[in-house]
Amino acid sequence: MRTINVARDFSRFPAGRYRRNGRTSGEAFREDLLSAPLSAGETIVVELDGTIGYGSSFLEEAFGGLVRQLGIQPDTLLKRITLTSSDPTLIEEIKGYIRSTEKKNK
Amino acid sequence: MKKLHHHTKVRLLRLARFRHAHRQARRQYRYLPPARRHVPARERIVAPQRINLTRGEGAQLVHFLRAVKTQVLKRRQRVIIDFRHVEAVHVPGAILLLSEIDRIVALSDLHKPITVRDPRNQRTREVLKQIGLHELTGDRCDITPVRDDVVFWRASKGADQSGDAIGPIIEHVAQTANKEHAQSVEVSGIWRGVSEAVINTVEHAYHQERGDGLPHSTATRWWMLTQIRNGTFTAAVCDLGSGYKSTVEKTIPESFVATVRERLLGASADAYAIQLAMEYGRSSTKQSHRGKGSRDALSVLEGHRDGELHILSNSGWVRYSLASGESPRVESDRMDLDILGTIIWWKLPLMNGAQ
After folding, report:
1. For range B204-230, the mean pLDDT
2. For residues A39 and B271, what is the distance between their CA atoms, to the nearest angstrom?
3. Probe site for chain B from A52, A69, A99 (most B CB atoms < 10 A)
4. Is B102:B96 a contact under the CB 8 Å cutoff?
5. Which of A22, A24, A55 lies nearest to residue B296, judging by beta carbons?
6. Looking at chain A, which residue has its C-alpha nearest residue B170?
7. DSSP 8-state secondary structure symbol assigned to residue A45
8. Who among A12, A56, A101 is closest to B196 (CB)?
9. What mean pLDDT, rounded, does chain A reach?
10. ipTM of this predicted complex?
């Protein structure tokens, strides 16, 4: 199991959707830190505390984008990713993005 | 003594008069070294007394900025901007001033196209120094802002969405606000709204021409200003793009518009477009998983449970006001001016209702 702390391992100021628009984007976070271990079958823990905050574009691209990019079923993805945060609404928001990607792909 | 002939007297008199007139004429001209004798004089353009966009004060500011733009970019002449009579600077006016001057200087091929003449008012002079206007124009200003209501002005600008450019400023100003005021600024909420506003400018604002007949300068796409004053935290993001109307026209289907038409306030096409974007939550890329950024702007108010959100786009404005325990109140109207861009700003009170 791998633990990824967003503030420590990526940026304290995550913002933006695509890599072309900045190095702290959701696409960069997904491709640089999430895709490889998930593709290899690992389970990961993502620690969300410690950053200044999250925009919806970042979260949707980072986590909803996993379903689009890797083709993993949302239920499978949710079993292999554990999200930790002092803000439970943030966790629910991310899960919502993952599940809503499933509905769009159906 | 020999008596002078009449003709000699007349000649000497004419010579004396000529020399007197020449001396008088020379006094009117400032001495210029030879290298500068053929430099044309600069046009002096007087700034309005109040740098603001609300309360009916926007027209003067917009006309003033257009005069500067016309003189520098179309007539290719240097200008002196006379701020001596400026008495007050407010955030929406300040961010438009900063962004327009930055763009004019970037687009001009003149050396030092704009010179600033500082305000007489000490506070406004410190504000212009604090937000970096003199750095844009290359002017020297030796004052150091010390006033409590000035030192918390912070300005930033950029061309991409990277959080590194915006984050430290938001964090610093919010921490300062939280240290000195009773009610805290919810930093993560502000971050969500501000960063999404910046994303929207980079992604959507510059797909079309701005409409002022000038090319867009690609060096900077967004400007940001934060301020703490009189117990209020203000953050503003500005772009000089094509506005909400041109974006939503392409993306929002008529079927959705029909469902919300009656609910939206339609005094102006631009104000209508702003509200459509807030309601629809979709972006210009026609992909349904995108475009929640507009709603994030409103979530800042909901997280703080108090405050105002203003969105100005071209010639329309929408204001969302929230007081504790109530639903957001929406007001909308058209302006008698066109800012040729979009400004989003939040005003969050830092004192509780008892104070």
Report:
1. 78
2. 46
3. A52
4. no
5. A55
6. A52
7. E
8. A56
9. 89
10. 0.85
